[in-house]
User: What shape does this take?
Amino acid sequence: MATNDFQTFAAGGGANVLTQAQYLALSSILANGFSAGVAPSAQLNKVWRQSSIMSAVLGQLIVNTTGQNATDDGTTATLLTNLINAISANSESVIGGVRNLAMNIATASASATLTADEIIVGSALGGLKYTLASFSKTINLATTGAGGMDTGSAPASGFVAIYAIYNPTTQTAALLATNAATKQGNVYGGANPPAGYTASALVSVWQTNSSGQLTVGTQEDRSISTVSVGVLTSSTTQSTPVALTISSAVPANARSVSGYLSLGSTSISSMFLNLFSSSASTGQQTAAGTVSAGTSLFTTFRNLQMVSAQTLFYTAGNGAGTPTFSITVSGYDF
Assistant: This one.
């Protein structure tokens, strides 16, 4: 258990110390300090008690928040660092908070550069936090360790979670990727963190192609736009909400999805295609209208929340001819 060397002085109930009112009445001493001569012990004890109490409180803040000792060894560097960490940990900042984060990939590649005005990383949810300013780091899925995969190779036709990681001792930042076959935490929780990198924050969850490369796309803060991915092509009408798995287009971390709906028929027909967040028909977004034979009707949908990971629900109806119902995903937020 961490210890606090900074103890209170003259803090007992019967301590020989001025009351606060008596102390405030010493306006000349408070302004100019003690003059040469003998100072009453009660006055000195009051001054020392006030100083010691604040020292003890700050020391205990360090101990309670950081788990580090507040050591009285005559130096200030470590105490100052740990005090800054304690204040940061108790701030209102949220791990994963970013300002003007961006990552753009014009051609499928193992490498990409992620930038941000600042990123908040932390040792754990509710733990020590650090602000990384003017962040600009490159991830390379063909390597391992800081700046690459945490272990092994990048998944083929899957997703990787990308973390900003930070080494408080060396004050070094980097990116780290891990296989995101399942939902990943806001702080890196894998078994292979690079040595010394004790703080992290999830900053991206990106799709990979069959070669384990990052696919074409753009990211702003926590919103990612992708090349369109078809998730449904069907000629079957559905009167009640049917589950639609979209794991080919969005990761398990995706919270909302965007794209477009398409309707077509071999005959002139009144048609509809409803898309929902859940089986309870929440968040409905609709494409509906009369479609001429051989033509299509398109409607976009934006930021449709997903109650179940990688799953949407839909209904579809058609009045005449053989219908074609299509759903395409072109982006997601995580």
About this structure: The chain has three domains: 20-89, 98-221, 226-333. The chain has a mean pLDDT of 94.
